[in-house]
Amino acid sequence: MMMPVKMADGRMMNMIEMLMMKPTVANPPTTATTTTRKPPDPCVPRCPAGYVQVPDQSVSNKCFRAGRGQASFTAADAECSETTNANLWCPGSIAEDRSVRSKLKLGTETLRIGCNDQDKDASYTCKGTERKCDPKNPSFGEKAEGTAGCSVGERCDGDEKGYCVNIAFDGSSKDKKKWLLVECNSENLFVCEVPIIPC
């Protein structure tokens, strides 16, 4: 005869009842599921559509594009402004000038740049950046001699207009470049520049 056995919960059960019980299985331990994540694609700084970088990034870390044709300063500035943060190009070195001209196949063309004195204070700045540019003492090339009988940095009698600046090819000048003061409504080829889009 089978004797009842006292269970842990205080109940009394005989052997047959114990055999009829469903086994209780502790919940299996949970394991954290690991998902393998693909690393993000490496970020590559880029230029806006239509703009290109020069091959040597140490020369300039900006993006450039040639204007659609000749334009006055105001029209060229408006065209460049169609791209966010873009301005008329204001080259900072002869290396940048050469590299941009080469990349955009502009060779010896005379180019309108962002350097101007449209506020008529005889102080030239690069449009959109407020960086100073001095056609009387440029960072490269031959200095400007003035236009229409006016000396650089001076206003002629009755002269109420500010001037804009072009850089022309001149085989006999320093660095083969010469800075020219021109009327802002004259039409010239130009280049737009924009900072590279960061990651």
Question: What does it look like?
Answer:
There is one protein chain. The chain has 199 residues and is an alpha+beta fold. Helices cover 12% and strands 20% of the residues. A hairpin with an 8-residue loop joins strand 5 and strand 6. Strands 3, 4, 5, 6, 7, 8 and 9 form a seven-stranded mixed sheet that branches. A two-stranded antiparallel sheet has the order 1-2. The chain is rod-shaped, with a radius of gyration of 37 Å.
Q: Which features would summarize this protein structure in a list?
A:
199 residues, alpha+beta, seven-stranded mixed sheet, two-stranded antiparallel sheet, 3 helices, 12% helix, 20% strand
Strand content: 15-25%
Structural class given helices, strands, pairing?
Answer: alpha+beta
**If you compute it from the alpha carbons, what radius of gyration comes out, rounded to the nearest whole angstrom?**
37 Å
> What general outline do the C-alpha atoms trace?
rod-shaped
Measured as a percent range, the helix fraction is: 10-25%
Sheet with most strands:
7 strands, mixed
What is the assembly state of the chains in this entry? Answer: single chain
First-last Cα distance: 83 Å
